[in-house]
Amino acid sequence: MELRLNDEHDVKKLKRLGAEDCPLLATFLIQLERRKGVQSSGIMLTFWLVALLCALAILRSKIMTALKEDAEIDVFRDVTFYIYFSLVLMQLVLSCFSDRPPLFSETIHDPNPCPESSASFLSRVTFWWITGLMVRGYRQPLESTDLWSLNKEDTSEQVVPVLVKNWKKECAKSKRQQAKMAYSSKDPAKQKGGSQVDVNEEAEVLIVKSPQKEREPSLFKVLYKTFGPYFLMSFLFKALHDLMMFAGPEILKLLINFVNDQKAPDWQGYFYTALLFVSACLQTLVLHQYFHICFVSGMRIKTAVIGAVYRKALVITNSARKSSTVGEIVNLMSVDAQRFMDLATYINMIWSAPLQVILALYLLWLNLGPSVLAGVAVMILMVPLNAVMAMKTKTYQVAHMKSKDNRIKLMNEILNGIKVLKLYAWELAFKDKVLAIRQEELKVLKKSAYLAAVGTFTWVCTPFLVALSTFAVYVTIDKNNILDAQKAFVSLALFNILRFPLNILPMVISSIVQVQAGLEGPEGGVFCGKEVKGHTGPLHTAPSALPVPLCPGVNLSGGQKQRVSLARAVYCDSDIYLFDDPLSAVDAHVGKHIFENVIGPKGMLRSKTRLLVTHSISYLPQVDVIIVMTGGKISEMGSYQELLARDGAFAEFLRTYASTEQERAEQDDGLISVSSPGKEVKQMENGMLVTDVAGKQLQRQLSNSSSYGGDVSRHRTSTAELQKAGAKNEDAWKLVEADKAQTGQVKLSVYWDYMKAIGLFISFLSIFLFLCNHIAALASNYWLSLWTDDPIVNGTQEHTKVRLSVYGALGISQGISVFGYSMAVSIGGILASRRLHLDLLQNVLRSPMSFFERTPSGNLVNRFSKELDTVDSMIPQVIKMFMGSLFNVMGACIIILLATPIAAIIIPPLGLIYFFVQVRSGVSGCRRGPAVYTTSM
């Protein structure tokens, strides 16, 4: 069916649809969204933008008509259109802002909410809502109080329970019930004779294990079920971005044709340039929406995995804990969880990379014909090499994780038993043990570095080899095939697009292999261990003398430890309790409270069997049976009244104890003013528990002077003076030193120290090889431009073989430079990692005991796990990415300045804007913050 609009009636109907029906529909949609509480609508913004663009064309026509002298002007229609145009423009401006929340909407009590949820559609698309935080980061270093609160759907209270619930469902599905069979005796004669069957034999026949293999629960399925619906939105943005990415080469083709056509009107050039700019802007907007979804999904996955592992680690039984070491748990929460987050960013390349390759090869086929098959053959030849490298990478990754787990396990044991190590001077012996494990780990890292260098060489050279083989076949199979500017540079643009999927796909495969190796931890033991059965909730009967914020767990006193242990025992709800003098280290009033409400005949454990070992006689009248031990043997046993009536050793002990206490009471009455200064003074200052060491010193002085009746007032004065002197050094008495993130920019001395750790020769060699690589890349592009400018003689180009040979030589030199700098950076990173780990280990083991008492062990374990893994793996990769991007930008600027010198006016301002946005906006402070909070776990 063919649609024609020659009929004037059809044209009027379309005009009515655009001028009347669409605004009415928009009005209805605005009212509907207002009632639904929608603060900003992307549909309405798009509609008003399209309506304005259409109205602009009509406005131009009316202005051109009005400029004619003999034009007939319909005043009513023109005025009506101008009113319509003004209203559309006003609606477009209003759609750029967010409306107020509905009158009866839920009240937000958060003092610092995230503005993303209330931002307009245009602000969310352009990420304008984050500008305030960037300005604040430019003015001052960002702190945790400056950051917005998380959205409700991103908090751990939301994501962790959902993951745990889905994981339990997956575990329930994977379990298979054992098949049960009825017992039948192997000897019917014995059964008839009524002979008894062996019980063990019967048990073996009654319960028969299922021959089917049990299916292991899949964490990947659980993650997909939990976070898949939101993450699937990234598929749409990624597909749209991939399609828009190929608009650039097609617009470039039109632009080259415009330059070659001398008769083409100028407006075509402006139109193609504007179209190229708009296409790049839309492509950027779509790409960053894709990254936003991936980053949020990765953050939720990381939060859920850490929360689930941490929750399981707290309730796992001792028998199940043996299957998972502390090093495995720490690595899972710090290193592997981060890899889950990183993988979420690029996992879409599994399907996007083949799509980009297919589209690029299709457009290359249209441009160069069957010669593209040569490039396809090169890519096919690279597949087995990439497969071998992926398998080797998995092997090395598993070995690396095993060595790292052993090292973290040993470091955790060292930190937990550091007092014993210091007492017996075992630091050097355990240092050698750690370094031996570290040496094995570095050997695996070195093999991985060599493999990564080979992989980088092949990944970087593959696109060039594809281009070289394609151009070589194109110009050699037919002498009439001319490599002009259009074919060369459009093909080169397509080859550059082809470079990213060919480079990133092996990296994504390697990341998947690493995550699969990490999945063996949560799927194998940490998630599946047996839990301790008990009760949860507040234990109100225990005295509130253990404020959790004041006692992070590093320096609990004896009384605090006994109260925590007692509370854990009560939570277990056992039938029999064994108490080994639990009230010896607590104050008298606290002990009385605990006995009356927990241990005593009216306490929580009144219906349980309790065996209490104690040296205190104040609780003996309330117990049921007393067992008196003398010389390791039971001398008497009975109730309190029975033992007193017997007038034995127990009664004699009570009389002796009572007389001794009476003498002490009389002495205390005479020196009552002396006892108070000798007590340890504890106070709260700045949220930390401060101990008055001056009181302890005075207590020793009073204990020595009380024997000869010294002057008490003199000691009171010394107490006040010592307390005043101790108040000046508040930080010296803090029990725990909080881990603080550094603020501001990284100093140049830090980079210089890292370069010295690598070695100055390797550092400058890497920079030189980076420079050679990019000089070769620029030279190959310049040589290609000279090749396209060769004159055409008799339908062919001269010097084709020379041009092709030099182009290939430049590509080979580029590949050698890539291999060289990859090897140099990798080896240098290993040398730096070895030296930094050695310095860290030596400094920790040489630290005094006061350092370990003030520093939580989580801070130190995090240094040896997460941050050392960053030094081992991430920093060399970041260096290569930074150097590559730096030389690419410098090369592009040089070429632009040589071609268009007037661009020197705009390049410096753009560089300053980029510097202030990327470097001075506080981004580095935001990246340092999470490392501080993970150390506490």
TrEMBL record:
It comes from Leptonychotes weddellii. The gene is ABCC1. It comes from the Eukaryota. This is Multidrug resistance-associated protein 1. CDD domains: ABC_6TM_MRP1_2_3_6_D1_like. Residues 232-514, 764-922 form the ABC transmembrane type-1 domain. The chain crosses the membrane at residues 42-59, 79-97, 222-240, 270-291, 343-365, 371-391, 449-477, 489-509, 757-784, 804-832, 889-917. Gene3D superfamilies: ABC transporter type 1, transmembrane domain, P-loop containing nucleotide triphosphate hydrolases. The keyword ATP-binding applies. Residues 415-656 form the ABC transporter domain.
